[in-house]
Fold this sequence. Notes:
Elements: E1 11-12, E2 17-18, H1 23-33, E3 37-42, E4 45-51, H2 52-59, H3 71-74, E5 81-82, H4 88-98, E6 102-107, E7 110-116, H5 117-129
Parallel strand pairs: 2-3, 5-6
Antiparallel strand pairs: 1-7, 3-4, 6-7
Amino acid sequence: MPREPIYKHMSVCPYTISRDESVERARRFMHDKGVRHLPVLDEGVLVGVVTERDVERIVARPGVDLAHTLVEEAMTAEPYIVAPDASVARVAADMARHKYGCAIVVEAGHVAGVFTTVDALRVLGKTLNGASDPVGPRR
């Protein structure tokens, strides 16, 4: 299973957000959809990723108005990007080595999916426990 391509374990067609949306909207959207990572687009082109942790860092700043703070101010501008055929083993190893919370899967210049640490743990659980899925299905 670790040698399988990442596309078999990613969240397909992930939610995205525009760089010029407010951090408040990103925060609400993540909460409503139950996600912790949002690829950030500018006219359809991936320009970053904003995470729950990024949002919380902005929230912690004194005097910040989340409704008037843009996602581009909170996002990571150079997310970890992989191709759909990248191996789970390589992606998980890179994520661990660099302490990335997710990998953005890009195909033909478009966001195809997101592979998170939870997805990596799901693969680990399946590998250790055989065919059963101790975490449950992906969204």
